[in-house]
What does this fold into?
Amino acid sequence: MNEHLQLPIDQSQDTHKANDLIIGKGVSFTGSVVVPNRAVINGSFNGELTARELIVDADGVMSGTCTATDIQVKGELKSTVFCSNLLTIHSTGHLEGSMEYGELVIERGGKFAGTMKQR
It folds into this structure.
């Protein structure tokens, strides 16, 4: 007897929403995009990005201009950055360029080179 067991899918553990953008590892994107919710960069992004939240993951590389309410940098961000609320550079993160921010956190090991201005 061959029975297939179907387990219910717990969507509450899915942290991505329908209006998120994910640039996967190994994927390169060049252009402009407006994301209603969260943009997660695991690959390479070059251009203009506007989102509610931007996460540049440890394998992610972003260059260009980004505008977001909250930004987390775990990878590499070479950009002009406009962050209206909290900008966090994690211990693995590197931000190079100019940034305007509401609040700033740089974890031990995080790197920044450029100009900064608090809003």
